[in-house]
Write a structure and sequence with these properties.
single chain, 462 residues, alpha/beta, Carbamate kinase, VC0802-like, 2 domains, eight-stranded mixed sheet, six-stranded antiparallel sheet, 14 helices, 16 strands, binds aspartic acid, binds magnesium ion
Length: 462
Amino acid sequence: MKFGGTSVADAPCIARVVDILEQHHKQGDELAVVVSAQRGVTDQLIEIATKLPESKDASAIEPLIQSLRTRHMTTLKGAAPDYINEVGPIIEERLRDLHNILHAVHNLRELTPRSKDYILSYGERLLAPIIGAALEERGIPSVVLDGCEAGIVTTPQHGESTALPDCDERVRRRLGAVLKNSVPVIMGFMGCTTTGIVTTLGRSGSDYSASIIGAGIDANEIWIWTDVDGIMTSDPRVINDARVMPELSYLEVMELSFFGAKVMHPRSIEPAMRKNILVRVKNTFNPSHPGTTIVRNQKRDDRVVKALTYIERVASVNINGAQMIGRPGVARAIFSALADREVNVMMISQGSSEANISLIIDESHLPVATEALAPLVKQGIVREVIENRNVAAVAVIGSGMVGAPGTGGRIFTALGREGINVMMISQGSCEANISFVVRQEDGPRAVRVLHDEFRLSEASDE
Ligand code: ASP
Ligand code: MG
C-alpha cells in the first residue's frame, strides 16, 4: 500500500492511514507500506536546491529547516506521542544533515544531479519514521527502511531513474522475512545505484516504488492510496460530470499516464503488469469507495473509449521541405537534434508524402527545440520549421479500440459536427490511444464533445 503526500499531510491524516492499515493487519493481511513526503515538501526542497547555487547568501536555509522541523515535530506529536523521545532525535539528525548539504551546495555554488537527488529524498526520510512510530503506537510492529535498504536499485539516471531487473530478487531478500512479523514502512520515490548512490524515480515516484516492491514480494494486490476516488474519465476541472472508472486495463492506465493525465507515475504500471498483479487506486479520505481497479483484461466494461486527457501546455513544431522526400536520415537528424537537447517529443506524425513531419512537445521545451532545429534549415536538410503555441492535445484512450473499426470515424465526425478543426492526428500501432491536436481555444470543447459522444459520464452496464 502506498500513501501519497496528501494522505500523510498531517497527524489527523496519518491517523486515517493507520486506521486503514490496522484494519488490514487485524484481518491477517501481510502488508508493506510505501510513503511519500508530506504534501508540498518535495516542492520546497526542489525550490531551495535549485535556488541556492545562484543566491548571494544562504539565508533561505534556516527558515526552511525551521518550517520542516515544526511541521514534522507537530505531526509526530499528534501521530505518535509516545515516540517523541525515540523519533524526535532521528528527525533532528536528518534536519542537521539536510542543513549541512544545503550549505555545501551554496558554498560550492553547484547543484549536481546527484546532490539534487540526495536532497530531494529528505521529504521521505523525514516522514517515514513518523509513520513507523504511529503503527507501533497502535501495537503494530514496524520496520522503517529507505528505498535502497528495501532493495530498489536503479539506473544512474538522476531525477528519472528506472528500476533494474534484479530488484525483484533484492526486494524479496530484503523484505521476505520482515513481512512475516512486522509491517515494513518504506520511503518511496528513492532508490540507489548498484554502488549505493541515492537516486530518485521522478515526480510522483512513490507510485513506482510501490509497484517495484509489490512485484518483488509477489504481492496479491498493490493499492495506491490517494486523495481522489479513483482514475477519472477526464479532468474534472474541464468536464464537470467526469466519473470515476471502476476498472481499467494496464494498457489504458499507461496510455493515460504517458499522455499527461496526473493519474500515476508513468512507469509505475510496468512492474505490476510484469507480474500480473492487480492494482487498486483508492481514496484515503473515502476508503469505502471501491476506487479504480487496474487489471490485464477488464471484463466489466465493454465500451471502446474509456477516458480522455487534455493537455494545454503544448506546442506544435511543423518541419517542412520537399527535400525531405525519399531521403533517409532526415528523421534521425531531427530526433537526434532534439534528443541531444533533452526535448521530449509527445506526439509525432508524418504523412506518406514525407514532405512534412509534425511534432508535439511540452510548451516549455519550445525555445530549446527551436535552437536545436535551426542548424537543419541552415544545412538544407529541411526547408522550414514552423512553431505554434496556440494548440492543445487531446488523447482518446481505451483498449477496446484495438481492432474495433469505426472509433476514429466517430471521434472525427463528432468534432466536425461541432466545427472543431483538427490540426494533427496520431495513432500508435497499439491502437489504444488516438491523439489529436486542436487550437487551444477549442480544446475544452473538443473534450466535452467526445465525453458526451462516448457517454463517459454514464455508468456502463456492469
Ligand atoms: N515526494 C515525491 C514527489 O512529490 C514522490 C511522490 O510524491 O510520489 O514527487
Ligand atoms: Mg505525490
